[in-house]
Design a protein that fits this description.
The complex is a heterodimer of chains A (318) and B (304). By secondary structure, chain A is of the alpha/beta class. Chain A contains 14 helices and eight strands. Chain A starts with 8 loop residues before the first helix and ends in a 7-residue tail after the last helix. In chain B, strand 1 and strand 2 form a beta hairpin. In chain B, the strands form two sheets. In chain B, strands 3-4-5-6-7-8-9 form a seven-stranded mixed beta sheet, with helices on both faces. In chain B, strands 1-2 form a two-stranded antiparallel ribbon. In chain B, 37% of the residues lie in helices and 13% in strands. Chain B has 304 residues and is α/β, with parallel strands linked by helices. Chain B has two domains: 36 residues, no CATH class; 224 residues, 2-enoyl-CoA Hydratase, Chain A, domain 1. The chains are: A alpha/beta (318), B alpha/beta (304).
């Protein structure tokens, strides 16, 4: 593994040992298959143990893992004939929001996502997944396009949040997010939102007010980052672990709260170990949701979405 | 958690509090630093008579200044789950709520009232900044939805008056979900063909700005109000640059096309009444003046 997280270090050590053994056997021709198999079993056992009981703070780290599949990976894996569309027709093209039309398992769809970028260069280009007003205005434009042609909207959310900067404020970050939420809620086509990594606050809900909200098992979704919450309520960013516990930001808690409709299991050891398998599993769930939603007419799609959000939060964690 | 702690104690505290008032006879103006006598401050709607700085106006005074003859009816707000996440930081959220309730004698951070403004029926949803910095949680969302419903029922305009630090962090994701929920409330009013006016006051930030507060048919702001999405400290830490003068102030938003009018508090009621009249009484008033009485001078005042 390229970048082990702190709590994954023992597993990374075992993986290192296997590497070493393989290296030895290349040289001396010793039979090491048995030893490797043993180690492999041990790794699996440890992974299972670790990932079964990840703490909320550990989940935050997994959700932010650089090797985790990003929105662009999801689109590449799940969408054929993807045709990216650019620009908000007002000011600029914001690469923090990627989107376009394509075919998802046979369905023509508008696909949108916040993209963090995988390499340093890509991260800069995508502004680390933090969109500016033009990004949300582009999202709105594409959602309206979907509405016009009766295409479902599928979004992949992975962002630390909307970009906090002078230019973003000057161009109306708040207004752009508000309008984007409004557009989600007005759509007369199915809208499926998938929180695949980090669901960061207003920047996430702007493209996640959908009929069906899916979350990866180890993704997180919250009103503010645990660091931000800790620095305000605990007056120290170091209490981020406590904040992560208190905020109930895991997929499992959010599902209990009714904020998330479905949680998709990740492969053993998290989506960053086996991104393809993870994305395929996600694709299956998106497809199932789409098949359920597409027969509904525009009016009831809108009404159902509305009723879902109106009902939300009327019960707490039971 | 019984009658004694929930009811008697807050009342007792409120009683004791009242004796502290002699301390606050003079207020220091944050704008010019001069001392203002409390009676002058109240008479001038909490606007400094020396420099014109707009101090924060308590929510109930806001209702009093906007409704005709200061008359309005408050509605009972819907019940919302208390502490849905069982949140605890350095203190239990339930305790913070209790404290805020006893300090303000209000249930939560939103007050909803109805009456008339310039003779036009209006529902006002005003944030109480003194209640946990006017932060928005489930109770605020529910109350805002109730305000929208009431406006529709009464065929009245809805006026939202945010004064809020943003989301109520102690309600986690559920506070974030109040963004789509309040947007739905706005939609309800708009689709009924009724005006939805936002009066942005100091401060309007975070999730409140990025939802119902930026979706008004008309946006009015009080001079100097801080209005924005991201907090200034967060922006400064991100970009490591000095923020421009007047950044995220009402005038700045007006310059950048996000606010229609910046109106001083003393002119606010008249402006609001005028706008509501224009939007809700679109027919020419001449229609009513059908009597053939050319000799009588018709008063030029706006009809109420």
């Amino acid at each position: 593994m390229k970048q082990p997280l702190e709590f994954e270090k023992p597993i990374a050590e075992l993986e290192g040992k296997i590497e070493e053994l393989r290296h030895l056997s290349d040289g001396g021709g010793v039979n090491i298959a048995e030893e490797v198999a043993k180690l492999q079993a041990k790794i699996e056992r440890q992974l299972r143990q670790t990932y079964q009981k990840l703490t909320p703070w550990q989940k935050v780290q997994v959700a932010r893992h650089p090797d985790r599949p990003h929105a662009s990976d999801a689109i590449r894996r799940l969408v054929e004939d993807f045709t990216p569309l650019a620009g908000d027709r007002v000011f600029a093209e914001d690469k923090a929001v990627i989107g376009g039309i394509g075919r998802f398992r046979g369905f023509s769809a508008v696909v949108l996502g916040t993209e963090k970028g995988a390499t340093t260069e890509a991260r800069v280009r995508h502004n680390f997944g933090m969109a500016k007003p033009e990004g949300y205005r582009k999202a709105r434009r594409l959602m309206e396009l979907a509405d016009r042609f009766g295409l479902p909207v599928v979004t992949f959310v992975d962002t630390a949040g909307a970009y906090p900067g002078i230019d973003a404020e000057a161009r109306g970050q708040a207004e752009a997010i508000a309008r984007s939420i409004e557009t989600c809620l007005r759509l007369r086509v199915p809208m499926i939102a998938c929180v695949i990594g980090e669901g960061g606050s207003g920047g996430a809900i702007a493209i996640a007010s959908g009929n069906h909200v899916i979350m990866f098992e180890h993704a997180v979704y919250s009103v503010i980052s645990p660091e931000g919450c800790a620095s305000i309520l605990w007056r120290s960013a170091e209490q981020a672990q406590d904040a992560a516990e208190a905020m109930k930001l895991t997929a499992q808690d959010l599902h209990k709260l009714g904020v998330v409709d479905e949680v998709v299991q990740e492969p053993l050891g998290g989506a960053h170990r086996q991104p393809v398998e993870a994305l395929d599993a996600l694709g299956d769930r998106i497809e199932a949701a789409l098949r359920k939603l597409t027969p509904l007419d525009g009016g009831s799609l809108r009404a159902k979405r509305r009723d879902k959000f109106l009902e939300m939060g009327r019960q707490g964690l039971a | 958690m019984n009658w004694l702690t929930n009811f008697v104690r807050p009342k007792l505290r409120a009683l004791v509090k009242q004796r502290d008032t002699p301390d606050n006879l003079w207020h220091k103006c944050p704008g010019c630093g001069q001392m203002i006598f409390h009676r002058d401050l109240e008479a001038n709607l909490h606007v400094c008579d020396k420099c014109g700085h707009h101090l924060r106006l308590p929510a109930l005074k806001r209702l009093g200044m906007l409704f005709d003859e200061g008359k309005y009816t408050r509605i009972e707000l819907p019940k919302a789950p208390v502490d849905p996440l069982r949140f605890r930081d350095r203190k239990r959220y339930t305790e913070r709520l209790k404290d805020a309730q006893s300090e303000t004698s209000e249930q939560d951070a939103l007050i909803v009232a109805h009456g008339t403004i310039g003779g036009v029926p209006a529902v006002v949803a005003v944030f109480n900044f003194d209640f946990m910095a006017g932060s928005m949680g489930v109770a605020v969302g529910e109350s805002f939805l109730a305000a929208a419903k009431l406006a529709k029922l009464q065929q009245a305009a809805l006026i939202a008056i945010p004064a809020s630090g943003g989301a109520r962090m102690q309600e986690g994701i559920l506070s974030l979900m109040q963004m789509p929920r309040t947007v739905l409330a706005v939609e309800e009013v708009k689709s009924a063909g009724l005006p939805y006016i936002v009066l942005l006051t100091d401060p309007t930030t975070g999730g409140v700005t990025a939802s119902f507060a930026m979706l008004g048919d008309v946006h009015i702001a009080e001079p100097g109000s801080l209005i924005g999405f991201a907090g200034q400290r967060v922006i400064q830490e991100t970009i490591r640059e000095k923020l421009p003068d007047g950044f995220q102030r009402a005038e700045y938003l007006n310059d950048h096309g996000m606010v229609d009018l910046v109106v001083p508090r003393l002119e606010l009621k008249a402006a609001l009444a005028r706008i509501l009249g224009l939007l809700m009484r679109p027919k020419p008033s001449a229609e009513v003046v059908t009597l053939p009485t050319p000799e009588v001078a018709i008063p030029q005042q706006p009809r109420v």
